[in-house]
Structure formats: C-alpha cells, structure tokens
Amino acid sequence: MFLRSTCLSLSILTATLCHAAEVPPAMADYIAGDLASWINAPRIVAAVQDQNGRHAGLSAADIEAMDTAWRGQVGVADAPVIAPVLNNPLSDFLREQVALAEGRITEAFVMDNRGLNVATSAVTSDYWQGDEAKFQKTFGAGAGAVFVDEIELDESTQTYQGQVSFALTDPASGEVIGAVTIGLDASAFY
Q1: CA dihedral defined by 74, 48, 148, 36, rounded to 10 degrees?
Q2: What is the reported pTM?
Q3: How far apart are CA 52 and CA 177, in angstroms?
Q4: Which residue from 5, 44, 122, 127 has the fewest beta carbons nearer than 10 Å?
Q5: Is 26 a residue whose pLDDT tops 90?
C-alpha cells in the first residue's frame, strides 16, 4: 500500500514514485506495468529531442506568449498554435495508447525540457506545463522520477482522474529531456 506524501522505489520501473495522494494497488500495478512499457518509446524520445532543439532559444516571454495563444485557441477548429501539436504523428501514437487502454487512460501528453507540449492525445487547457507539479516533480526531480498527483476533476477531460507523470530520459546520455503525463480514470482502479 502506498502512503500519503511518500516516495517509493519501484524496481520494475527503476524509478522513484512520489505522490500527493493514496494510490490504489490496481493503479500502481498499471503504472509499473502497462505505462512503464511505452512511456520511453524511441518515437517519444526523438520527438522531444527535436522540439528541445527547436525551442532552445525561447525566452520566458516567448513561452508566455505561446501559452496565451494556446489558451485563446482552445475550442477553435484548426487553431494554428494547437493543430501542429494535436495533429502530429506522436499525438496519433498517444491516441492509440489511449484507445488500447480501454477507458483507463483519459489523456496523455508529452512535454519538452521547457514544459511545453510536444504531443497530446487531446487538447489540453494550456500549452505550458512547466509551472505545474506534473513537470516540476518529474523533470526537476531527475532520471526515473514518477509523480502521481491527487485525484480530482480534470478541466480538459471532465473526468475524475489521477495524473501520473514520468521524467523522460535520453537512453544514450541518461539526461532528463522532458516529461510524460498520463491521466488515469480513477473509477477504473477502484
């Protein structure tokens, strides 16, 4: 059983699991098994490395402007800021993973080393995740970090979900290059 506000080492993940909430055993098993099997897929690593290169020169003002533009385009068909992220091959891969999960996954998104969306299974409420625990407690915590947040009503999916986030590591260098967040439907694990 997982205890509130603790970090546990999961040998199956070779990671540290930090969480803000009680994690039901079925959810912990799903995180350690099913999710861990694909969150470091080569296509994810490659897409994040590519975006990291393209975004290397962004300033804080640039990131804020991009996030503001994204928020203003949520709900707009063919939104020019959102569409390239939502309609790329990695987003298709994430949607496949959501479909294969048969209702257990509500959303999936990948972030670069700035906390900006690289790919997403569905439109997120914002583009920049860098100011949120899902990014800070994984990317900022180092290789192998896993963070499970409180179960709550998610604005984007309108479901009660627990988000589990993973630090994404370059397998060649061991360097943390981004993060992956998976929303899990809480009702599927109780």
Answers
A1: 130
A2: 0.86
A3: 8
A4: 5
A5: no
